[in-house]
Specification:
By secondary structure, the protein is of the alpha/beta class. It has helices at 19-30, 42-47, 69-82, 88-96, 100-108, 122-125, 177-193, and strands spanning 2-4, 9-11, 33-34, 61-66, 133-136. Strands 3-1-2-4-5 form a five-stranded mixed β-sheet, with helices on one face. The N and C termini lie far apart (35 Å).
Amino acid sequence: MYFSDQYQFSYIRNPRTMSTSTARWLLRHYGAQVYTPPQDQIDVYRQRHQRCIPDRFVGYYTWSVVRCPYDRLFSVWKQARFSRDCKWWGGVVRREQWSFPHFVEWMCDVTIAPSLPRFGSQVAFFEGVRIDKMLRFDDMPHALKCLPFYKDGTIEHFPSARKDMPTTAGPEDEWSPRLLAMVGGLVGPDIEAYGYEWRH
């Protein structure tokens, strides 16, 4: 989580929603800081996957970004398959050279899903968190202009997204009915909650 006492906001990073670029933008233009919990609260903070709002930020403008669950899950696979930035599970995906459908099957495994909650349902990720404004990935970065602390001209300096990973699935990774059903079971709550549509 990033925050600013000067502008009184807290930003919750939602993976694969331009969160790294957004964090850099906030650091550069708004003097944002990374929240570090007190030593006696670190375990609780990690259990909530760094999205809980500490008492000191009550009253701050809290916001985040959501993404179409289908595209977000595909982006998670791309990162794991083609980037070295992932942790243990990314190494598994790269080593086994999993296709996207294989990755989704693995994500749906009841023994795996609980350990990767940040990459499943966004509804579950934000459960119990008060959000003042939820932006949509589709509208980024221009959606940032609606934030109450936005300063004119800063959007022109928003960091560019990475260009070193493929953006579309290969022929073997098309959205088959079985794959759609699996993804729907994994991230279905996001579709209606955030105004997206089911794919058929």
